[in-house]
């Protein structure tokens, strides 16, 4: 009986050792939003992970068009969150574009999971504009 208890304890300890795993990388969430204004359109994709009570924004990329000839448009990205009646902007950037733009955020760009977060990409080709908005949750 004593041997059976020892064997059972050894099996439990061995099983516990097997169940302990190294910390796994957070899962990346990818969300996409599209907007249209006449024949002009924009697509915005945001990537983030969630851990420690925050959504950590990894990056975002956009595609838009059409752009005629040498004309460049502009894309602006604003990431913010709302707590009560207060809105806090955690990232804001504008860049010229002729079709594709990538935004890489600092690792400190985060949105608390207890707040309502949004990421809005505004596309403008000089004559038409539209906004693609993603909820961060």
What would your notes on this structure say?
With 137 residues, the protein is mostly beta strands. Residues 1-23 have low confidence and may be disordered. The longest helix has 18 residues, at 2-19. Strands 1, 2, 3, 6 and 7 form a 5-stranded antiparallel β-sheet that branches. Strands 5-4-8-9 form a 4-stranded antiparallel β-sheet, with no helix packed on it. A hairpin with a 2-residue loop joins strand 2 and strand 3 (54-65). The protein starts with a helix and ends with a strand. It has 1 helix and 9 strands; from the N terminus they run H-E-E-E-E-E-E-E-E-E.
Question: How would you summarize what this structure contains?
Answer:
The protein is mainly beta and 137 residues long. It contains one helix and nine strands.
The portion of residues assigned to helices is 10-25%
Number of helices: 1
Secondary-structure-derived class: mainly beta
Task: List low-confidence stretches.
Answer: 1-23
Distance between the termini: 54 Å
Radius of gyration: 23 Å
DSSP strand tally: 9
Largest sheet: 5 strands, antiparallel
Question: Which outline best applies?
Answer: elongated
What value does the average pLDDT take?
Answer: 84
Strand content bin: over 45%
The secondary-structure element order is: HEEEEEEEEE
């Amino acid at each position: 009986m004593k041997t059976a208890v020892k064997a059972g304890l050894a099996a439990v300890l061995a099983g516990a050792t097997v169940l302990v795993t190294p910390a796994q990388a957070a899962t990346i969430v990818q969300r996409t939003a599209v907007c249209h204004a006449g024949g002009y359109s924009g697509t915005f994709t945001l990537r983030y992970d969630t851990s420690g009570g925050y959504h950590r924004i990894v990056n975002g990329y956009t595609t838009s068009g059409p752009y005629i000839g040498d004309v460049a448009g502009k894309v602006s990205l604003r990431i913010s969150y709302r707590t009560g009646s207060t809105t806090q902007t955690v990232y804001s950037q504008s860049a010229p574009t002729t079709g594709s733009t990538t935004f890489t955020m600092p690792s400190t760009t985060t949105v608390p999971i207890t707040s309502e977060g949004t990421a809005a990409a505004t596309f403008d080709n000089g004559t038409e504009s539209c906004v693609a908005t993603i909820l961060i949750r």
